[in-house]
Amino acid sequence: MAQHGHHHVASSQKALMLEMKSLQEEPVEGFRITLVDESDLYNWEVAIFGPPNTHYEGGYFKARIKFPIDYPYSPPAFRFLTKMWHPNIYENGDVCISILHPPVDDPQSGELASERWNPTQNVRTILLSVISLLNEPNTFSPANVDASVMYRKWRDSKGKDREYAEIIRKQVHATKADAERDGVKVPTTLAEYCVRTRAPPPDEGSNLFYDDYYDDEDLEDEDEDDEDCCYDEDDSGTEES
């Protein structure tokens, strides 16, 4: 049994080292990743920049990813340290997202086993899922019921009920002090946000929910050609209404 445990440690450390290396060579735009403590591969600190042209624009959100000893066979946990008001984020910052749930069949949850964790998922797919979750909350089984009700009011009123948007704006504003303390310049344009990577990132999570109600005029002057970026203006027509 002890040997079995040791094998897991060796293989999960190898997997985590490879992922860290890959993320440093080809970063996911909008994220910075560091180890909380150089000697511990199982705890990562993530800084997330809010994508331009969404409610989260200009935001600097910190989170932790905690990996299990048998990663990638079991999913990591993803927890925001920054206060987040969102249908799928618990009070304590834990993110509730199907790909972070172990792949057991649970008809109650309404999730398909195929949407859950499996060893082909990785930090890159988690980060992209978290970003699309921020902009497209899942109101099916909310972690924060009040946020979910408020989000639905905002969505169903086509943005006329601004309460949800205003709370997020306030939270984004509150992160400016954190960014200053950490000496971080938060990108506010698509050009700054889109880190050029050698291979274009997978095009999932691209039909983000744009903040069309307030930021239309900002879209016009962002015409640099950012085909590598997963938040291209061309996608703004693909939202479900």
TrEMBL record:
<feature type="domain" description="UBC core">
    <location>
        <begin position="11"/>
        <end position="177"/>
    </location>
</feature>
<keyword id="KW-0597">Phosphoprotein</keyword>
<feature type="active site" description="Glycyl thioester intermediate">
    <location>
        <position position="96"/>
    </location>
</feature>
<feature type="compositionally biased region" description="Acidic residues">
    <location>
        <begin position="212"/>
        <end position="241"/>
    </location>
</feature>
<dbReference type="GO" id="GO:0005524">
    <property type="term" value="F:ATP binding"/>
</dbReference>
<dbReference type="InterPro" id="IPR050113">
    <property type="entry name" value="Ub_conjugating_enzyme"/>
</dbReference>
<keyword id="KW-0547">Nucleotide-binding</keyword>
<keyword id="KW-0833">Ubl conjugation pathway</keyword>
<dbReference type="GO" id="GO:0061631">
    <property type="term" value="F:ubiquitin conjugating enzyme activity"/>
</dbReference>
<dbReference type="InterPro" id="IPR000608">
    <property type="entry name" value="UBC"/>
</dbReference>
<protein>
    <recommendedName>
        <fullName>E2 ubiquitin-conjugating enzyme</fullName>
        <ecNumber>2.3.2.23</ecNumber>
    </recommendedName>
</protein>
<comment type="pathway">
    <text>Protein modification; protein ubiquitination.</text>
</comment>
<feature type="region of interest" description="Disordered">
    <location>
        <begin position="196"/>
        <end position="241"/>
    </location>
</feature>
<dbReference type="Pfam" id="PF00179">
    <property type="entry name" value="UQ_con"/>
</dbReference>
<keyword id="KW-0808">Transferase</keyword>
<dbReference type="InterPro" id="IPR016135">
    <property type="entry name" value="UBQ-conjugating_enzyme/RWD"/>
</dbReference>
<dbReference type="InterPro" id="IPR023313">
    <property type="entry name" value="UBQ-conjugating_AS"/>
</dbReference>
<comment type="similarity">
    <text>Belongs to the ubiquitin-conjugating enzyme family.</text>
</comment>
<keyword id="KW-0067">ATP-binding</keyword>
